[in-house]
Write a structure and sequence with these properties.
It is a single chain. The protein is mainly alpha-helical. 82% of the residues lie in helices and 0% in strands. The protein contains seven helices and no strands. The longest helix is centred in the last third of the chain and has 56 residues.
Amino acid sequence: MTINLPVGSDSDLDEISKLFVEAEKIIKSIEKLDKGLVSPSVNQLRYLAHHLIRILQNNIDIEDKKENIKLAKNHCKRSIYDANEVGILYLLTKISNFQAGYRFISLSKHFNNYPDNLFRINEINKFVEVPLSDGEKIKYYDKVSQHYIELRDLSELFESNRSEINKNYLLKIGVGIFVTIILGAIFIPLLSGYFSKMGESYFRNNSKDTSAKIELKQ
């Protein structure tokens, strides 16, 4: 059966194929982050299938097929955006929990570009906080993909250094406890001796005052 397609639609279908592969790839990447993550991007691929079927039908006129090709592309791009957005929100929470867990530690000592990393994290957070229309999400599908990759790499960087940070933190705690014990061993006897002498002096003086009062009464 011959399928009537608009002129130049081969390149459009190639583009749709590439976008579909990209969408499928990011969806699988999100699933690896957390199996419990649910992405609305799968629904967009269902809509894509509907438009592909319309494109293959010969009882649809050419102009209608052109419109379906356009819509198929848009659903692919929207699927990519939605999947990346879910991943970004998950990673922002994960990074925030990481920072909270080490809020008493200077993380800049463990990461050379930590201030720059924080700046980029904040910029990405601002981007996803701004409500976007469906058209804008389709327009910025590629940009949000870059944000996801950048945030994923930062999260992996932080997590890969967790054991080293914990080791240094425990070492500092151990040193602090050791120093406290040593200082206690030095100062407690000194303070004990000081207060002991103060007590002896007090009772000695008090004894003299009592003797003087008794002599006066006599």
